[in-house]
Amino acid sequence: KLVCYFTRSFLFLSLQTFEKLLIANRGEIACRVIKTCKKMGIKTVAIHSDVDANAVHVKMADEAVCVGPAPTSKSYLNMDAIMEVIKKTRAQAVSLNESICCSFISLLSLQASEGVTFIGPDTHAIQAMGDKIESKLLAKNAKVNTIPGFDGVVKDADEAVRIAREIGYPVMIKASAGGGGKGMRIAWDDEETREGFRFSSQEAASSFGDDRLLIEKFIDNPRHIEIQVCIIIVVLFQVLADKHGNALWLNERECSIQRRNQKVVEEAPSTFLDPETRRAMGEQAVALAKAVKYSSAGTVEFLVDSSKNFYFLEMNTRLQVEHPVTECITGLDLVQEMIRVAKGYPLRHKQADIPINGWAVECRVYAEDPYKSFGLPSIGKLSQYQEPLHVPSVRVDSGIQQGSDISIYYDPMISKLITYGSNRAEALKRMEEALDNYVIRGVAHNISLLREVIVHPRFVQGDISTKFLPEVYPDGFKGHKLTDLERRELLATAASLYVAEQLRSQQFLGTPRIPIAKSKRSSWELSVRLGDGIYPVTISKDGTSFSVEVDGMKLNVTSEWNLASPLLSVTIDGTQRTIQRLSRNASGDTSIQFLGTVYKLQILTKVAAELSKYMPEKAAEDTSSILRSPMPGAVVAVSVKPGDTVSEGQEICVIEAMKMQNSMIAAKTGKV
């Protein structure tokens, strides 16, 4: 391993590429590019908005320049400002945010006049594949399987309804320049088509500066599978002037676990594909890339039905969020390959050299509340943050740190959590452990949902599709449902924590506070409230262990009881659990993260529990006449005015958060 490491390091250093590279992006992907640049000896320039002045990618880069205020249209998508920074810093190469790639035509003149190279495909390929309408036509010409639909631009809502009727419901309405689930709506009837056209066009204009839409048949209950490709056409750079092209496909990624058309869990390889289907998809992916003279790393996305028929969805001309799982099973550094290709070097590998070694799983950790539509954005400051890097075979790609702010302006992703194993079972087991050991405080997050997905029997068996979440949780995600044994384990752990803290409070620098009044108490009678149940618990101490009686059953709970640590490893009758105590107060209320889900408990002594029934309860707020946004965001439209009478289900306003628009409707009939 050491020989391989030093050999790779030598190759990085000896490879002549660029002296300075500007990264026109933010967050985890910018940090990812900077890491490889450092290995290759390339200096980096970061751009940032004013609110991102202390962001991690800014601190990692050798230079950093502010390009505008918080909104992306005025900073990270501000082409004039970025062009000025390129000239000012004399960067030889630039890695761009894909959202501006399609309109960054001026880069070509800069490239010709000042020798600036774009890390990625040429503008023609970006424009062709960035436009879903044009890419679909190109795919057809390249004999790639495509989804039936309308191949032109939809002019208005009336035309959208007409086209949808001709195709047959359900249909998918998409932004032509879209990606990341933005500007996409499924419509099952005329009314949903009109509403989908309105919101999709508004989101597309806001996110991509292009409100054009297309409509195609919605493939019900498919799997979402991607093929990573790496292409080089060696006529684009001076060093290699011939017209010979090399093409590779780097196997597939399974991305079927989604919510709102955005991926949540990815893995490589797929449990569904056989070698023949994999080869056919890979060859079509390469054929499409060659058809547009693609020259970089890119991703071709397919939908696959239950009979293994596959249809072209789109091609992403960027380094995708889920690329780490491909790197894990192939051993390639895709950022390094992109930089080498941009400089004009030929690919070093043949198709036969591309392996599938082991299994990799990626979970997208978001600052979201998974109990609201499987994840509505949350904002705030990360008061405590600790990545589970001590767990073996774990990789975390993030662009934040403790103290970072999650704001309404950008995507709420916290990190990409990746685990690797020799097989799928091993990779999933490590992911389960990594999620339990991930400390995130200050914002809501989706750890509970991710953990439930990867341990669910259907997921473990590989029985998944893009409808996995609504099928498994038809009434919405409610958190982990405790078995009787798990409930007893949680009650015993909570009671042990309570007693351990009571004992610690009697100590001062390891000595009893009042030595002359030493307590010889060795057992406690407690009352623990969990949900709607109240459970009597008897607990006694023996060294570092507690013997706890719950429901007439005794459990032995052992731990080091380091109450200052955010993570607590507890062994319950031989079963190891990693828990987190998130909060507590003097009234006995405590919150514990157990098996990924946060449970609220109240722990009282038997006497206090008997007296608590005399305490008045605070009346719940009457919110029946209030419309309250389920997430932070900007009000972009108000459909009513004071004095209007509205009916149940009528739109009141539209909230935009993280570039997604959400219609807020009245819960009952009334007057505004």
UniProtKB/TrEMBL annotation:
<dbReference type="Pfam" id="PF18140">
    <property type="entry name" value="PCC_BT"/>
</dbReference>
<keyword id="KW-0464">Manganese</keyword>
<dbReference type="GO" id="GO:0004658">
    <property type="term" value="F:propionyl-CoA carboxylase activity"/>
</dbReference>
<keyword id="KW-0809">Transit peptide</keyword>
<keyword id="KW-0436">Ligase</keyword>
<dbReference type="GO" id="GO:0005759">
    <property type="term" value="C:mitochondrial matrix"/>
</dbReference>
<keyword id="KW-0092">Biotin</keyword>
<feature type="domain" description="Lipoyl-binding">
    <location>
        <begin position="618"/>
        <end position="672"/>
    </location>
</feature>
<keyword id="KW-0443">Lipid metabolism</keyword>
<dbReference type="InterPro" id="IPR041265">
    <property type="entry name" value="PCC_BT"/>
</dbReference>
<feature type="domain" description="ATP-grasp">
    <location>
        <begin position="136"/>
        <end position="343"/>
    </location>
</feature>
<dbReference type="InterPro" id="IPR016185">
    <property type="entry name" value="PreATP-grasp_dom_sf"/>
</dbReference>
<dbReference type="InterPro" id="IPR005481">
    <property type="entry name" value="BC-like_N"/>
</dbReference>
<dbReference type="InterPro" id="IPR000089">
    <property type="entry name" value="Biotin_lipoyl"/>
</dbReference>
<dbReference type="Pfam" id="PF02785">
    <property type="entry name" value="Biotin_carb_C"/>
</dbReference>
<keyword id="KW-0442">Lipid degradation</keyword>
<keyword id="KW-0460">Magnesium</keyword>
<dbReference type="Pfam" id="PF00289">
    <property type="entry name" value="Biotin_carb_N"/>
</dbReference>
<feature type="domain" description="Biotin carboxylation">
    <location>
        <begin position="17"/>
        <end position="474"/>
    </location>
</feature>
<dbReference type="GO" id="GO:0016042">
    <property type="term" value="P:lipid catabolic process"/>
</dbReference>
<dbReference type="GO" id="GO:0046872">
    <property type="term" value="F:metal ion binding"/>
</dbReference>
<dbReference type="InterPro" id="IPR005482">
    <property type="entry name" value="Biotin_COase_C"/>
</dbReference>
<dbReference type="Pfam" id="PF00364">
    <property type="entry name" value="Biotin_lipoyl"/>
</dbReference>
<keyword id="KW-0067">ATP-binding</keyword>
<keyword id="KW-0479">Metal-binding</keyword>
<dbReference type="InterPro" id="IPR005479">
    <property type="entry name" value="CPAse_ATP-bd"/>
</dbReference>
<dbReference type="InterPro" id="IPR013815">
    <property type="entry name" value="ATP_grasp_subdomain_1"/>
</dbReference>
<dbReference type="InterPro" id="IPR001882">
    <property type="entry name" value="Biotin_BS"/>
</dbReference>
<dbReference type="InterPro" id="IPR011053">
    <property type="entry name" value="Single_hybrid_motif"/>
</dbReference>
<dbReference type="InterPro" id="IPR011764">
    <property type="entry name" value="Biotin_carboxylation_dom"/>
</dbReference>
<dbReference type="GO" id="GO:0005524">
    <property type="term" value="F:ATP binding"/>
</dbReference>
<dbReference type="InterPro" id="IPR050856">
    <property type="entry name" value="Biotin_carboxylase_complex"/>
</dbReference>
<protein>
    <recommendedName>
        <fullName>Propionyl-CoA carboxylase alpha chain, mitochondrial</fullName>
        <ecNumber>6.4.1.3</ecNumber>
    </recommendedName>
</protein>
<dbReference type="InterPro" id="IPR011761">
    <property type="entry name" value="ATP-grasp"/>
</dbReference>
<dbReference type="InterPro" id="IPR011054">
    <property type="entry name" value="Rudment_hybrid_motif"/>
</dbReference>
<keyword id="KW-0547">Nucleotide-binding</keyword>
<comment type="pathway">
    <text>Metabolic intermediate metabolism; propanoyl-CoA degradation; succinyl-CoA from propanoyl-CoA: step 1/3.</text>
</comment>
<dbReference type="Pfam" id="PF02786">
    <property type="entry name" value="CPSase_L_D2"/>
</dbReference>
